[in-house]
Amino acid sequence: MKRLFVLLACVLSLSVQAQGTPLTLPEEKAAAKAIEPSWLASHVRFLANDLLEGRGPGTRGDALAQAYIASQFEGLGLKPAGAAGTYFQPFELLGIEGHPETLTFRSTAGHAELKFHEDFIAVSGVQTPWAALENSELVFVGYGIVAPEYQWDDFKGMDLRGKTLLILNSDPADEPNLFAGRTRLWYGRWDYKYAQAAKVGAAGAILLHTTPSAGYPWRVVQASWTGEQFELPASGGPRLQVKAWSTEAATQRLVRLGGQELTSLVAAAQTRAFRPVPLGVKVSTRFQT
Fold first, then answer.
1. Mean pLDDT of all residues in 34-57
2. Which tens digits make up the pLDDT trace of 169-214?
3. 150: closest CA among 169, 175, 170, 182?
4. Given CB 3.0 to 4.6 Å as the disulfide criterion, which of 34, 103, 202, 268 pairs with 197?
5. Are 140 and 277 in contact (CB under 8 A)?
6. Angle between helices 2-15 and 37-47 (to 10 degrees)
């Protein structure tokens, strides 16, 4: 809904420039004051209505939302700038389905099997018929952040190729002069962490979910990461085999297999001096997509 709200606000701003005459700063401020919250809210209410069935890519609700927004563009006098004289710019999306039923973890101290949905959520990170981890070494890498401007590097040059990285969600937020304090930066987002894990050659990445660090409960992860997932077709570059989330309780079980305590690992990850911690645990799973 936030994206829709921003889109509609931009549409109204553009509409006052539809005749091609650039606005001066005072005119822009005057135009902004003319935006009626009730006008924006009425569009958001329609686009967020259950009748649009979530507006999933390629669905009937998605088509309805597209048609509605295009009609608003036309009504505001915006000139079509898309393909074939329309307001649309077509592109391809790839839909991927399939989840592992379990993730298996083994160490010299024993083994553990996490249950899908209850303990973890995982999806394929590759656009192939199968995704797999085969005895991939589990390494705790703190927040998984490389930020030269903060003199921060959680990887410290360790060879992480083929390994599965256990990563904390968010970023070290307690220090007001570091990572913008409690403001969520790109470094704290799950997509950054998965991309960074792929960049260092990891086979898999597991993000530790907690409600305070994510800002939402586990049920949101369950709802968002099950069912068909959509992404752009791969254009080269490294990719993870498996992208996963795990609950705090499940993660505690995993690190204890390696003789560690989660609270101690989290505390160590709060400083620049942190170094990756191999947990002595191997991860395996295989599933069809």
1. 90
2. 988 865 666 765 566 678 889 999 999 999 999 999 999 999 998 9
3. 175
4. 202
5. yes
6. 130
Instruction: Please name the residue that has the structure tokens 């077709």.
Output: 233
Phi, psi of 236 (to 5 degrees): 95, 175
Position of tokens 């563009």?
Answer: 73
d(CA 166, CA 98): 22
Structural domains in the chain, CATH included, are 2-85 (no CATH), 96-288 (3.50.30.30)
Longest dimension (CA), the chain: 72
Residue with structure tokens 């990572």?
Answer: 179
Token readout for 102 is 């379990």
Question: In whole angstroms, what is the distance from residue 38 CA to residue 2 CA?
Answer: 15
